[in-house]
Amino acid sequence: MLVDATVVVTGASSGIGAACAEAFAAVGARLVICARRSDRLRDLAERLPTEVHPVALDVRDRAAVDAAFAALPTQWRDVDVLVNNAGLAAGLAPLQDGDPDDWDVTIDTNVKGLLYVTRAVVPAMVARGAGHVVNVGSIAGREAYPGGAVYCATKAAVDRITRALRMDLLGTGVRVSTVDPGLVETEFSVVRFAGDRDRADAVYRGMTPLTADDVAEAVVWVADRPAHVQVAEVVLLPTDQASATRVARR
Ligand code: NDP
Ligand code: 8X3
């Protein structure tokens, strides 16, 4: 069903987003890939076996988001699947010691960026009476953990946006889903700890995390259900993880 589908993936320059682009391309979808690092998008576009349209985009920039989607060439405008994946956590400080600049970047990317892209893409889906928004949430949206106040709040916001959007779109034929992973080894922790690789590696030490491909497989499965089936949510945990704070380490 995804052969020749047009799929937009935000945050496609790394981790889960890049894996989603590869997984959708593997089943024949054509891809609009978005992120800030255009060199990474170019490399990915060269690797993918199907047609690709890279878009260098900072999802926090509302005007740029609107302009980028308004400027999509005609053959890319009928978006079948939007994967709202771009996101990050900046820092893991207790709230009382937190850096408000970190809060701004996390909220602006994970919440406002997701809203801007959704607002830019969904009206055409409604007009066509078909489409699918797949948000990448997190176990962090379902539970809190120390130092995660702002990141957890943004992912809880994604959960509420997912639920409300599903209601807003009821009867339009447009589906809304969320895929909420636990620990996935990507560049997420390197970004969270501002390039401190030792600290990032320690997040996954002694346990087997999910891979970006594991998550991408779930996203493609969600998107590939028949049109009358709407997978509301998928929570995907490593076997070594029981909750946001309970992880088995050897
Ligand atoms: P990565 O750091 O590997 O990838 C994050 C992606 O988001 C990159 O492609 C980055 O691209 C993009 N991005 C970040 N900020 C912006 C921005 N302002 N505009 C456009 N793109 C942006 O991490 P993951 O793959 O792990 O993260 C992907 C999603 O998965 C996030 O929403 C994250 O919260 C979520 N998640 C991650 C988990 C994990 O354990 N890794 C678990 C649960 C959820 P660029 O820098 O080029 O702009
Ligand atoms: C990313 C997973 O547990 O580091 O959403 O918040 S976690």
Q: What portion of residues belong to β-strands?
A: 15-25%
Total DSSP helices? 8
Mean pLDDT: 98
Strand order of the largest sheet: 3-2-1-4-5-6-7
CATH architecture name: 3-Layer(aba) Sandwich
Number of domains: 1
Summarize the biggest pleated sheet. 7 strands, parallel
Helix content: 40-55%
Query: What coarse outline follows from CA principal-axis ratios?
Result: globular
Q: Which cofactor or ligand species appear? A: NADPH dihydro-nicotinamide-adenine-dinucleotide phosphate, 2-hydroxyethylsulfonic acid
User: What ranges have pLDDT less than 50 throughout 5 or more consecutive residues?
Assistant: none
Distance between the termini: 42 Å
Order of helices and strands: EHEHEHEHEHEHHHE
Describe this structure as you would to a colleague.
By secondary structure, the chain is of the alpha/beta class. It contains 8 helices and 7 strands. It has a 7-stranded parallel sheet with strand order 3-2-1-4-5-6-7, with helices on both faces. It is globular. The model has no long low-confidence stretch (mean pLDDT 98). The structure holds NADPH dihydro-nicotinamide-adenine-dinucleotide phosphate and 2-hydroxyethylsulfonic acid. The site of NADPH dihydro-nicotinamide-adenine-dinucleotide phosphate has 32 residues, from helix 1, helix 4 and helix 6. NADPH dihydro-nicotinamide-adenine-dinucleotide phosphate (NDP) binds next to helix 1, helix 4 and helix 6.
Tags for this model:
250 residues; globular; binds 2-hydroxyethylsulfonic acid; binds NADPH dihydro-nicotinamide-adenine-dinucleotide phosphate; alpha/beta; seven-stranded parallel β-sheet; Rossmann fold
